[in-house]
Amino acid sequence: MTQSYLTSNIASRFYARWLNGDPARAGMAAEIAGLSMTPADFARLLQKETEAGMPLPRAMRRLRNLVVCHLIDRDLTGKAGLDEVLRTISEFADFAVQTHLAALTAEMIEAHGTPIGKESGEPQEMIVLGMGKLGGGELNVSSDIDLIFVYPENGDTQTTTLEQRQLSNHEFFVRLGKKLIGALSEITEDGFTFRVDMALRPNGASGPLAASFGMVEEYLIVQGREWERYAWVKARAMTGRPSDIATLEQIVRPFVYRRYLDFGAIEALRNMHAQIRAEVVRQEARHPGRTNNVKLGRGGIREVEFLAQVFQLIRGGRDASLRDRSTRKTLTTLVEKNLLTAEEVTQLLDAYTFLRNLEHRLQYLDDAQTHTLPANPEDRLTVAKMMGFTDVEAMLEELDAHRAIVAAQFDAMFSDKRNGQAQAPAAETPAQATLSHDDGHEAIEARLAALGFDDVPAATQRLLATWQSPKLASLPDGSRTKLQALVNAALPQIAALTDARRATLGRLLDFFEAIARRAAYLALLTEYPHTLGRVIRMMSASDWAAKYLTRHPILLDELLEDRTLNAAPDWQAFAGEVQRQLDAAHGDTEHQMNVLRDLHHAQLFRLLAQDLEGTLTVERLADHLSALADILVEATIRAVWQTIHNRHRETPKFAVVAYGKLGGKELGYASDLDVIFLYDDEDQEAPALYAKLAQRFITWMTSHTPAGILFDIDIALRPDGASGLLVSRLAAFEKYQTASAWVWEHQALTRARFCAGDTAIGARFEAIRETVLRQPREEGKLRAEVRTMRKKMHDAHPNRSTQFDLKHDAGGMIDIEFIVQYLVLLHASRFPQLTADIGNIALLKLCGELGLIDTTLANGVADAYRMFRKLQHQIRLQGNDRARVDMERVAAQSEQVKALWKATLMEGVTD
C-alpha cells in the first residue's frame, strides 16, 4: 500500500472501512489516484459497474464512495486543493441527479405516458433546482443536497398504450420526485448517494413536492419571505430544457433581485443570522461537547456567506455580475466593484478556505455531516494533524484568528451598534426631545428653538406642512416611524450649519417626501446614519445637488463609502463597465437605456460630491464631465447599431462630432450635447441606415425612462442647420465647410472635435477642421462678421436687471469666446498651433505668447474667464438658470475683457 493510502487510512475511519471492505478497492483507488475527476470519468466508472450487472442505485452508491475516498486521499496528501474538492463533489451531485432522473423519467413515461402542457401542448420535463452550496458549486464532501422540483405547466400525461395509466402532470412529477429522492438517499448495504433535503421548496414541508411555474410564481409574489430570497440566490437548474430554465429564471429574478438598491436586506439577514446564532447557542448549552461549530458559530462559514450575499441582495438587481452563485467568486467581484478592499477580501477568502478545509476534515473522520470539533481528544488531534498542525492548540489558535477576522467584518456590515441603532439614553433634555408626526405647532416650535434654529416660525410651518401632506399622512406606520426617526436625527445636524438652515431643511423635507414610499431608501438611511449627514451637507451646499438627488434617490448608494466617493475616475475601467452591463442587458432596450442612465448618474454624483468638497477645479471637473459624456456617446452608438436588424456591417462607419461645451471640453452638470453626425460608407443603404442610427441615438439619449434622461441633444450645428440632413456624408461635409459655411459656423468649428465612433472618420474630420480653420481670411470682413453675430446674440439675451450677466453681457464670457474664435480664424493660416483644441484659457495665453495680443491683457482675460466660469458654476449649483452677480464683484475683470475686445474687434469702428 502506498504512503498516500496509508495517510488517508489512518486519518479517516470511513476511508479505512471502505478500503478494507473489499480487496479490489485498493486497485480501484490506485487506478484513479492521479485523476482530477470529471463527469466523463463518473460516466465511465458507472458504466463499468452497470455493465457488470449492478443495478443503477447500487452502482451509483459504490461510485459515490469511490469518489469521496478519492477526494479524501487527494486532499490529505496535498494533490488537491479546496477548489478541486468542491468542484468534484458538486459535479458528482449533478451527475447523480441527472443520471437517476433520466432513468426514472423513462420508467414513469413507460408506465403513465408523457406529461403534456395544457397551454402549450408540449412535452414537459422536471427541473431539479440545486440550492445552497450545491447551487453555488461549493458542496461539502459529506453534505446533504437541498433540492426543489418544478415543472413548467399543469396538464395530463398522454398515453400511447392501454397498459399506461394516465396521471395529471402534477401527480406525475410528484411521484417522479419521490422516486428520485429514494434513488439518491435510501440507505442500503452500500450506504447512500446523497441525503436529500426538500425543506426549501415553496411552503416547506407542508407544500407539494413538485410545483408548476405558475404555483412558484404565485407563491413568491404572495407568500415569499425575506429569508427565501437569500435561499433562491443560490438556485441553479441541474436539469431541464434551456428554454424552460430561462422562463423560470424570469419568474424568480424579480423576487430575489430588486431593481433598486435594497438595503432592507441588511435587517432581514441580520434577523436570520440572530435566529441561527440563538439556535447554535441553545444546542451548545444542551450539548457542551458540540462546541466550535465552524459553519454556524461566531465568525464561521455562514457569516462569510452572509457577507457576500448581502451585497448580492442589495445590488444584484442593478448589477448582473453580482448574481454569481459562488461565495468565493462573489467576494472577488466585490473587490472589482470597490465594495470591499482587496485586503479585506483576501482575509475573508483565506478564512473561508481554512474553515471549509477544517469542515471537510471533520467529515472525513466518519463521512458524517458534522460541523463541530469532536469532543474526543484523540479525534481532535487527528483533525489537527489533517490540517497540518502538530497539536490541537496550534490549530485552535489559527481557527480563532480566522474567525475573529470574519466576525469583525460581519460586525462592520451587520452590527446594530455600528448602524446607529444603539439604545437611546433613558432621560432627555428639552433640546434632545424628539418630535412625533402627531406633534402640534407649539411642540415643533419649542424643539426647533431649543436646537437653535433661526426663523423658527417659518421652519415650523414647513415641517408641519410635510407631516400633514397627503403623501406622508397615508404612509404605513412602519414607514412613518422610520421617517420620523430620520427627521429627528437630521434636525440637530441642520441646526449646526452656519447658514442656509431653513433652505436645507426645506430641501431635505422635499427629499423625504420623494422617498417616503420607497422602503429601501429609508432602510439605507437607517442602516447608515453617516449617509444622512452627507445628504444634509450636500443639500446645504447646493440646491442643484438637492434636486438632483431628489430626482434620483438611487444615488444614495454613492454616499456610503469614502473609498468609492472620493476615488479619482478611472475612465478606462468605467468604459469597460458600461460595455459589460450593456452586453448583459442585450436585447432589452429599456434596460440598456436605464443602465446608461444609472451609470451616468452615479459617476456624475461622485464628481459632484468631490466638487462640493473642493477637491476639483472647474477646469478639471469639466474635463471629467466631458470624458464621461464621450464614453456614454460611444457606448450608445455601439448599442443602438446592434438594434438595427438590417445593418450591413458589424461596425458602422459613422462618427459623432462634438461642438460647443462638449467640443471644448467645458461641459457642466446639466449641459446639453451639441453634436453632428458624419458617415463614410458607399453602400447604397448607408444613408438610410445611418439616419436611422442617428435618430435612435437621439431617442436613447433624450427619452424619459424610470431612470430619467441621459442628455439633451442639440443638432442645430449640422450643415444647413434645421433644413439640413440629419447625417452628412464626410465628403459633403468637407465641401460644405470649404465652400458654403457661414463665418459663425467656422467660429463653432474652433470648438469642435471628434467625440465617438469610427476613428478613421474622426481623423479625417480633424484634418478637414484644421484645413478650414487655416484658410486665409480678410481681416476687416471677418471682424465685421464676428461683431454682427455677437450683436445678434446680445440682442437675443437682454439683461434688464442691475446685475452683471456673466455669460451674455458685454465684457462677459461670450465676448471672450468670440475674441478667441476671431483670433484663431484670423491667424491660424500663419500659426497652425492655434487650431489645437486646448480650450479658451490656453488659447488666450498662446495668442499672447505669439504676440497677437498684449501678453498682460491676454493673461488678465484668461484669469477673468476662469473666474467667470467658477462663479457661473457656483451659481448653477444653487439652482439658478441665469448666472448673474453684483457688478462690483467682477468690474475689474469685465473691464479687461472690454479692453481686449476693443483692441481686437473694434478697429475702424468710430461709435
TrEMBL record:
**Per the UniProt entry, what is one GO biological process?**
regulation of glutamine family amino acid metabolic process
What gene codes for this chain?
A: glnE
Q: Domain Glutamate-ammonia ligase adenylyltransferase repeated: where? A: 33-243, 533-767
Matching entries from Gene3D superfamilies are given as: 1.20.120.1510, Beta Polymerase, domain 2, Nucleotidyltransferases domain 2
Q: What is its EC number?
A: 2.7.7.89, 2.7.7.42
Keyword Transferase tagged = yes
* One Pfam match: GlnD_UR_UTase
- Organism annotation: Noviherbaspirillum denitrificans
Q: Which family does it belong to?
A: Belongs to the GlnE family.
What positions does the domain PII-uridylyltransferase/Glutamine-synthetase adenylyltransferase occupy? Answer: 271-414, 789-881
InterPro entries membership: GlnE, GlnE_rpt_dom, NT_sf, PII_UdlTrfase/GS_AdlTrfase
What protein am I looking at?
Answer: Bifunctional glutamine synthetase adenylyltransferase/adenylyl-removing enzyme
Enumerate the GO terms in the molecular function aspect: [glutamate-ammonia-ligase] adenylyltransferase activity; [glutamine synthetase]-adenylyl-L-tyrosine phosphorylase activity; ATP binding; magnesium ion binding
Q: What reaction does this catalyse?
A: [glutamine synthetase]-O(4)-(5'-adenylyl)-L-tyrosine + phosphate = [glutamine synthetase]-L-tyrosine + ADP; [glutamine synthetase]-L-tyrosine + ATP = [glutamine synthetase]-O(4)-(5'-adenylyl)-L-tyrosine + diphosphate
- Report the domain of life of the source organism: Bacteria
A GO cellular component annotated for this chain's UniProt record is: cytosol
Question: Which SUPFAM superfamilies does this UniProt record tie to the protein?
Answer: Nucleotidyltransferase, Nucleotidyltransferase substrate binding subunit/domain
Quick one: where's region Adenylyl transferase?
426-911
Signal peptide (UniProt feature, chain positions): none
- CDD domains assigned to the protein according to its UniProt record, in alphabetical order: NT_GlnE_GlnD_like (cd05401)
Q: Which NCBIfam families match?
A: PRK11072.1
Give the start-end ranges of region Adenylyl removase.
1-418
